[in-house]
Amino acid sequence: MTEAEQKASWERLRSSPWNPQQIRRAFINSGRPRIQLIFVPSFQMPRFWEVCQRGSDWLVYSGKVSHTGEMTVMVQGYELVAFDGDKLQSFFRRIISLELPIAPDYSGMSGVDGTSTTVTLNGDLHSHVQYRWWEKYPAGWEPLVTIANEMLKAFEPLATETP
What we know:
This protein has 163 residues and is of the alpha+beta class. The chain contains three helices and six strands. It is globular and about 50 Å long.
């Protein structure tokens, strides 16, 4: 990819809404996505962060959630945010060392207002796993929820309130 093509790819991410759940690697120099964290509360600004690994460096990018549909989130922007790379790597290592049940929630619970959280772990060769919960999560997922909440608390000061 030429430098001009890389620049054009970055500009598309910054100027047009995109779906973070779709595989995209057109902006080569950002690193390999390892963790996507999407936090969508009912009455606050939704948040998107992506932790990437570029060689031995760990980076975090933030974007503005521009649309939240039934099961679709669209993000606009993709900006590098200053954060301790060792802490990012620690979040990743802690999450991938967890042993979690794959069963989703079967409580029969439903609702309208509340907070939805999605954690997606990306591996190599298009492998990934995604956990999504709304308010109440399956008990076996508590270790993941704990780490996701730590990440949210750590990343929150980095967020912008730009509508």
